[in-house]
Specification:
417 residues; alpha+beta; 6-stranded mixed sheet; globular
């Protein structure tokens, strides 16, 4: 008797049971047919960009090509099919199969002027602060073109958000033919235009990590790990709120498992700091920073924004909402909340998330391969016009030189107004 779909609760299923065990034979014809049929039933509108005939034919083609393929290879090929359907929330979670020893010890960021190395382990620190040009013999543009087949590129910021991390996954580079064996060469360019090549050996051994050292960290980048924080700048009469997570101790208790609540900051305590500050201080400029907020639960932010607008005096100054490539999910909803609640000026970069989007994601596990499948259950229509992203009124891209000098272009523009 064939297995059945397993609804998933990630926090109670051991990671080693979320993939096929060594020696297990997977009936891919059955597995992929089950995947195709279930997604068609569970997804609220699966056939946005492709019809059902294309979809089922593509799934059958993947099943025919599984001979001799690893679980990782099959999962990546399935993701390419799902990507073509046009919904970024519909996923094969192949990244759970990326082995830690196959993740290159590099952290990159895609600035306006290219992809730069911000962190490496000590063995490869010659790459720090250099611009990535190629991987082995493949120009980085060619590499990114292949990797982008795994992403729903509803706007350019999707690529800028995800590709810098994906290029560090050796298994993906190997899948697309850009790497093989137990090493690869990163080709970079220094500030003078000279080429620097660095061979990276696998498996990766964990070591001391080193990073570039800006003269001072740009304001928005200073504390990305905080769920939320606020600061009043007396001289500028500017109140800055950074809202990095649509989550908190209270949200974990209300909407999560509750297991981690005690380790999370209290949003109620944060509110006790914010509202009195808005009332007692002269505020010529209010900044609400959503640039690094990838989402969570929108209700917390929606109510927060309503209370902020209520707490401000009638003669308050300008309100700036900062958005960026990482702004997604519930953070998109909260950005729109502010746009509808007050006269705001949007500053930053385009968002990778789009205002009208699928959400409320659920997951199930395929019975034999243990592959995790994500799918949305609802659709949020926040704006009448179905635009691909929220585009700021003032676009302020970040260049690497500005980052190293501690300049936050969005904040510089606001301070100079």
């Amino acid at each position: 008797m064939k297995g059945i779909l397993i609804p998933i609760l990630l926090f109670i299923i051991p990671a080693n049971r979320l993939q096929a065990q060594p020696g297990e034979r997977i009936d891919w014809d059955y597995e992929i047919d089950l995947l195709a049929r279930e997604l068609a039933v569970l997804h609220p509108n699966l056939f946005l960009q492709k019809d059902s005939i294309w979809y089922y034919d593509a799934m059958k083609q993947v099943a025919r090509e599984t001979a001799g393929k690893s679980l990782f290879q099959v999962s990546v090929r399935l993701q390419q099919v799902l990507t073509a359907l046009g919904d970024p929330q519909t996923l094969i979670n192949y990244h759970f199969l990326v082995e830690k020893s196959q993740i290159l010890p590099l952290e990159c960021y895609w600035f306006q002027d290219g992809i730069y190395f911000l962190e490496t382990n000590r063995a490869y620190e010659a790459l720090l602060g250099l611009r990535l040009k190629a991987i082995n013999q493949a120009p980085i543009e060619v590499v990114m073109d292949s990797l982008s087949t795994l992403l729903v590129t509803q706007n350019p910021m999707v690529l800028k958000t995800h590709l810098p991390r994906m290029i560090t996954w050796f298994q993906l580079l190997e899948y697309f033919g850009f790497a093989r064996g137990n090493e690869l060469t990163m080709v970079a360019e220094d500030p003078s235009g000279e080429t620097v090549s660095q061979v990276i050996h696998l498996p990766v051994e964990l070591g001391e990590m080193v990073s570039v050292q800006p003269s001072t960290m740009p304001l928005g980048w200073q504390d990305q790990n905080s769920f939320f924080r606020a600061r009043y700048f007396e001289r500028e009469k500017l109140y800055y709120i950074q809202y990095n997570r649509c989550w908190s101790r209270e949200a974990e208790e209300d909407y999560g498992s509750g297991a981690s609540a005690l380790f999370m900051p209290s949003f109620k305590e944060f509110e006790k700091q914010v509202y009195p500050a808005l009332r007692k201080n002269e505020i010529r400029k209010l900044v609400f920073d959503l640039r690094f907020n990838k989402g969570g639960h929108a209700a917390q932010g929606t109510e927060f924004i309503r209370k902020i607008c209520k707490s401000l005096p009638r003669n308050h100054g300008e309100i700036f909402v900062l958005v960026g490539r990482a702004t997604d999910g519930a953070a998109i909803i909260n950005a729109v909340d502010f746009m509808k609640s007050a006269e705001v000026i949007l500053v930053g970069e385009e968002t990778s998330g789009r205002p009208n989007h699928f959400g409320e994601v659920k997951r199930f596990v395929l019975p034999e391969s243990r592959l995790i499948v994500s799918y949305p259950t609802s659709y949020y229509k926040l704006l009448e016009e179905d635009i691909p992203s929220i585009t700021p009124d003032e676009v302020t891209p970040m260049e690497f030189k500005a980052y190293m000098r501690g300049i936050d272009p969005a904040m510089e523009l606001i301070l100079q107004r």
